Amino acid sequence: MTRRLFSIFSSGASLVLGLALLAGSTAHAQPNNNEFLKSNPQMFAAMTDVVAKPSTYTVRVRCLDKDAALGTIVGPDGWIITKSSELKGPAKVTLKDGRIFDAKLVGVHTDTDLAMLKIEANGLPTPEWRDSKEATIGGWLATPGIGKEPIGVGVVSVATRSMPKERTFPTARSGYLGIRMQDSESGGVRIEAVDAKTPAEKAGIKAGDVIVGLDDEEIKNREQLAERLAGRKPGDEVTVVLMRDGNRIELKATLGRRPPQALDRGEMQNNMGSVLSDRRTNFPLVLQHDTVLKPSDCGGPLVDLDGKVIGINIARAGRTETYALPSEAVRGVLFDLMSGNLAPVASTKPKTAAERLAEAEASEARALAA
Which of the following CATH numbers is that of domain 47-159+284-370: 3.90.1300.10, 2.40.10.120, 2.60.40.2950, 1.10.10.10? Predict the structure, then answer.
């Protein structure tokens, strides 16, 4: 560890010595010296040289006046990649120099959850890439923001690997319907019971109903329904299509907040003290590290001690797990994202009340400023 830390600071021997003394002075007092260093303000300050250049091609992405993600400039004429599933409305991009631009969504790569944004700017800085295979387990990493210091520091936990295909299950942040269900022999999902005072009960869903659709998607089994609900938020309105006594019925339901007892044990433990990304599985390749990031801080670059980009942070996956897409995988999809071949499909999902309110407030603010 000492050798890696020393390699950070070629510009100041006194800073190197100070960090080494910091590490040594806490070695006996801290059961895990790495954990102490990663949360120590002096460590963040010491990493300013590492992230000085990467922060110039890092951007803050905001949707509906809220932080949505970080982004990475990948083309000097305004091309920016970010995390697709965190974009919940029209995007604005803030550069390190404080300039703010409206951003156009021009491409979405579903497998990697990457989105390509375009802003009207030129002469922007771009990354120096390095293959993730050069990052060794235990090697120090930094996540730059648009400020002077990094927003996170960590180490490589698991080398780049393929991620097995997993089903997406509802999480603490997913919308909640409030039903007990089983697969129906004739297709769809049979409602075994409806919990009291839940969105399902308020919408008029009854035991014995068979759900065959959600919004504009056909539902064939309970796993599919669980996956679709996992992608919704509390407050979202959904159209539940069901069969009742041979009749096809459509009911509107406003999803609620998922109670703790509705989560499985593993999900509850994973969420303790953490807010996790909604989309955090089913990536083709991931580099795992232990940097503590918020979901809204994914989408930006992950750099080694030389300031080279070894990956793009793509998901906060657990209390001590953050996933990055390896740089070699990211570079392989940039052209397709820019070309228009992966143009986003317009969503038919109704806007939530929160989205409508935020858009109305933003419109009113623009009118007052005009």
Answer: 2.40.10.120
